[in-house]
């Protein structure tokens, strides 16, 4: 007996001018390839549908182009569920409520709804919490897709009510089959154009796609537009170079763009910083990753030149968790432009670097006796805490004292800059430490 009974392809309106990757989406589970560990006879999804069991709420975790959206749609259709889809990037609580209301209406009519949420990790905690009662009551079967580890990005309560399935990047042999099929398909692909695909061009497409079927088909389409009757390797290379580089969160582009972002902030160029911020957001970067980098930057590169920088960055992270996307983009932009325009100082960072280097070089030097804790009479008799002077007992709440170990008593690690608020800090410290004790 077949694991999935064969059914005629479901007719779905796809515009003729839609991208090739959209036109070539599998129409049935039989056309879907690449995740046999889930759909094969011994896979966790096979027995669920073969036995006629209801489709559970699921979260599909995998790299871009591995088929998360398509698999969710096909499973819902095979299970006889109405399929509704929203994007966590573009949708908010209002959109979620509207879809839940439609699902409740459909349920009263006797049809259940599979609610697909693309990039579910982009929903903040409050938005994810809002899903819980509807999943628990069975108003919707939740189907989520994420490129991020659900263990960190999906709240535990939601994870406990859904099964998590991991999709794998497609290997080059499978990508070659997908590309070849698209090149020959006369109904949805490029077959009507009679374009021949050179073997080395096919090999290059499969390699450049890096496990992403959508990227592979996009390269094929661009190369075909450049070629005549035959797509050669050079056509593929030119198509790859001409594309707006994908923002691959796990690849080189990820590190290049975040590097450009940080360097633009450090260089006090708010226009460039916002440009790279937009590149990251449009490319699907996780906003919390950006916010973490902003908080680090606020300490490392702004520091005490503008102590409010860290306050702004931290407040932005908290505000984003409350607001989520899409409005949270404004919060990221505000924090970015503030930090780009703030006075800069890396004095705190350098102070720690100097101190760490000395600690590694000199080891654990003894704490001066007058600074040691002295909770017992014996320790006090041994001189612990003896001679310590309490700064608040002195004018200006300051007294010149030795706080470093004896061997490095004259070292100075923190050297305030002349920038922003740190200029006043420098004057204050110079005045204090020139005073005679």
Which structural traits does this protein have?
alpha/beta; Rossmann fold; 4 domains; five-stranded parallel beta sheet; Helicase, Ruva Protein, domain 3; two-stranded parallel sheet; Zinc Finger, Delta Prime, domain 3
Please characterize this protein's 3D structure.
The structure is a single chain. By secondary structure, the chain is an alpha/beta fold. It folds into 4 domains: 35-166, P-loop containing nucleotide triphosphate hydrolases (Rossmann fold, 3-Layer(aba) Sandwich), CATH 3.40.50; 172-242, Orthogonal Bundle (Helicase, Ruva Protein, domain 3), CATH 1.10.8.60; 252-341, Zinc Finger, Delta Prime, domain 3 (Up-down Bundle), CATH 1.20.272.10; 364-434, post-AAA+ oligomerization domain-like (Orthogonal Bundle), CATH 1.10.3710. The chain is built from 20 helices and 7 strands. The protein has helices spanning 20-23, 36-39, 45-50, 68-78, 93-108, 125-136, 150-153, 156-159, 172-184, 199-208, 213-226, 233-242, 252-266, 270-282, 287-302, 308-323, 328-341, 347-362, 377-381, 421-434, and strands at 58-61, 82-87, 113-118, 140-146, 163-166, 196-197, 230-231. The strands form 2 sheets. Strands 2-3-4-1-5 form a 5-stranded parallel β-sheet. Helix 9 crosses helix 10. The longest helix has 16 residues, at 93-108. The N and C termini lie far apart (92 Å).
């Amino acid at each position: 007996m077949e694991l999935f009974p064969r059914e005629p392809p479901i007719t779905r309106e796809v515009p003729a001018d839609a991208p090739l990757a959209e036109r070539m989406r599998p129409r049935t589970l039989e056309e879907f390839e690449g995740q046999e560990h889930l759909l094969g006879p011994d896979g966790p999804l096979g027995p669920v549908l073969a036995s006629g069991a209801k489709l559970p709420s699921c979260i599909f975790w995998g790299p871009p182009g591995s088929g998360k959206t398509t698999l969710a749609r096909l499973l819902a259709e095979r299970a006889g569920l109405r399929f509704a889809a929203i994007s966590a990037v573009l949708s908010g609580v209002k959109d979620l409520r509207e879809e839940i209301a439609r699902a409740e209406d459909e349920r009263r009519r006797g049809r259940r709804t599979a609610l697909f949420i693309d990039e579910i990790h982009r929903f903040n905690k409050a938005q994810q919490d809002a899903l819980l009662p509807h999943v628990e009551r069975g108003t919707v079967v939740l189907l989520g897709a994420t490129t991020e580890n659900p263990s960190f990005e999906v709240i535990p309560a939601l994870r406990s009510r859904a099964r998590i399935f991991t999709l794998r990047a497609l290997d080059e042999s499978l990508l070659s089959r997908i590309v070849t099929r698209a090149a020959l398909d006369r109904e949805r692909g490029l077959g009507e154009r009679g374009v021949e695909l050179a073997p080395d061009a096919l090999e290059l497409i499969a390699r450049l796609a890096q496990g992403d079927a959508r990227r592979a088909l996009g390269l094929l389409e661009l190369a075909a537009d450049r070629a005549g009757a035959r797509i050669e390797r050079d056509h593929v290379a030119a198509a790859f170079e001409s594309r707006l580089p994908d923002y691959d969160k796990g690849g080189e582009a990820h590190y290049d763009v975040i590097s450009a972002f940080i360097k633009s902030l450090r260089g006090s160029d708010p226009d460039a910083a916002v440009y790279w911020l937009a590149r990251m957001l449009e490319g699907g970067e996780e906003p919390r990753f950006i916010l973490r980098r902003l908080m680090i930057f606020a300490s490392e590169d702004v520091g005490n030149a503008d102590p409010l920088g860290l306050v702004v960055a931290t407040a932005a992270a908290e505000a984003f968790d409350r607001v989520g996307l899409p409005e949270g983009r404004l919060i990221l932009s505000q924090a970015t432009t503030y930090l780009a325009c703030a006075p800069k100082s890396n004095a705190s960072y350098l102070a720690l670097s100097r101190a760490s280097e000395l600690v590694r070089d000199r080891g654990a030097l003894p704490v001066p006796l007058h600074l040691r804790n002295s909770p017992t009479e014996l320790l006090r008799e041994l001189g612990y805490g003896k001679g310590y002077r309490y700064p608040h007992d002195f004018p200006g709440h300051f007294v010149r004292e030795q706080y470093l170990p004896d061997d490095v008593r004259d070292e100075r690690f923190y050297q305030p800059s002349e920038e922003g608020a740190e200029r006043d800090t420098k004057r204050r410290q110079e005045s204090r430490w020139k005073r005679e004790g």
